[in-house]
Amino acid sequence: MTEQEAKNIAEPIVKEIVNCISSGQYEHICRFATFNNGCSDVIMKEMLEGYLAVNGLSHYDEYDVPFIGNRSRLDVYVFDSGKGFAVDYDLSTLIILR
Question: How buried is 11 (Cβ within 10 angstroms: 0-12 exposed, 13-18 middle, 19+ buried)?
Fold first, then answer.
């Protein structure tokens, strides 16, 4: 598997998960991902909403919101065996300063 093949597989799934997060529909994340190590949609909601509260943020951006930064928001790392991959995605929130 190439990096581009992995990205083609991952991107639509990541998009759905990010949009579930941005809309606050945490219970729908389970349609696209399996939680491990005792995590659940309830715990995920607590973590994500807690991060917003602690940092004084109102929301997470949807997947298609432009990212301000010098690197990709979505990175894939193909395993050496070529039989799988890991995904890293940077969530963001647009803050308008006045």
Answer: middle
